[in-house]
Amino acid sequence: MGRLGVDLYPLQTGVGLDRVESFGKFLGGSPANVAVAAARLGRRTALVSRTGADPFGTFLHRELKAFGVDDRWVTEVAAHPTPVTFCEVFPPDDFPLYFYRLPKAPDLEIHPHELDLDAIRAARVFWATGTGLCAEPSRTATLEALRARSEHGGGDGGGGYGGEGGTGREATVFDLDWRPMFWADPAEARPYYAEALRHATVAVGNLDECEVATGERDPEAAARALLASDGGAVRLAVVKQGPEGVLALAADGTRAEAPPLPVEVVNGLGAGDAFGGALVHGLLAGWDLERTLRHANAAGAIVAGRLACSSAMPDPAEIAEALAGGTGTIRTGTPPERG
Questions:
Q1: Count of C-beta atoms within a 10 Å radius of residue 334
Q2: Three-state DSSP class for 235?
Q3: What percent of the chain clears pLDDT 90, i.e. is strictly above it?
Q4: N or C: which end of the chain has fewer CB within 10 A?
């Protein structure tokens, strides 16, 4: 549930937007990308979001369907245009983003009364993001969706790590997804993040995002702070550390760390979303933490070696090849065609 828009990525790298001559057009938005990534791995996925009533909105519906993502809960907002996002590509580690979401992005016009709470409760994994908390009515809708999950008991298992019921393969994931340009001040966001964490069984974020949510930047301290969130719902904390890999701590004491896979970076922006889709896959499959993190890291590395986000998401065979040390998986340049 959350952000959806059009990514316009330059087809020339190493130059600013003022010098770019051509762009590729892709489906974008972190929750949408996570849904695509999970679908590529064979999962049934759907998105709760909104677009403008315009050609870009039509494009996004077409892309979601092409990727195998159910778009029935993606509706139009006549008053606001579909947002677009530009980036600059300066490999290996500089990818400035420029969000065009004014006067307001349609995905922030998700109203609580429009939610299909029965479908949200029934999902084996529900994924919501911090961006959805930055404005009303999306803020109230996001929290209501998370609250519906916790009150219903959906996601008690936290993916099987420290859970107390159900199959152990259900989860309510809160992706911290901190975007400073959407907030006046980090302090403004923290109370809403705290409320979201009261209802989530899995918390995922990088070091900057963890610092916003918990005040802690050390990976170990941040993970423990997420697990200790008020309400005690979080059963698994996943802290992404970029080139240092990823740390995961579970409430039952399970711990795993995984190093990143080496890659010639083309565009690092989609790596976290690929990681998220593979994390969902591992949670649903009931894999142990180490295996889940290794697959998620491999998915992220593959996408970092490609230009696009959504259309770059890997399938299981590509992840297996990357984990086996194959060189054919990590590609650069133009993203691959969708199958």
A1: 12
A2: coil
A3: 81
A4: C
Cβ distance 168 to 157 under 8 Å? yes
| Nearest alpha carbon to residue 260 among 251, 269, 272, 249 | 272
How many CA atoms, within 13 angstroms, populate the side-chain half-sphere of residue 152? 21
Q: pTM score, two decimals?
A: 0.92
Q: Is 23's pLDDT higher than 90?
A: yes
Say if CB 89 and CB 13 are below 8 A apart: yes
The residues that bridge with 238 in the sheet, in sequence order, are 204, 248
Which residues neighbour 55 within 8 Å (Cβ) at sequence distance 6 or greater? none
| SS3 call for 6 | strand
Q: Work out the percent of the chain whose per-residue pLDDT is above 70.
A: 91
- Lowest mean per-residue pLDDT among 133-137, 153-157, 335-339: 335-339
Among the listed residues 323, 281, 336, 275, the one whose alpha carbon sits nearest the alpha carbon of residue 42: 281
| pLDDT, position 269 | 87
Residue 156 has φ and ψ, to the nearest 5°, of -60, -25
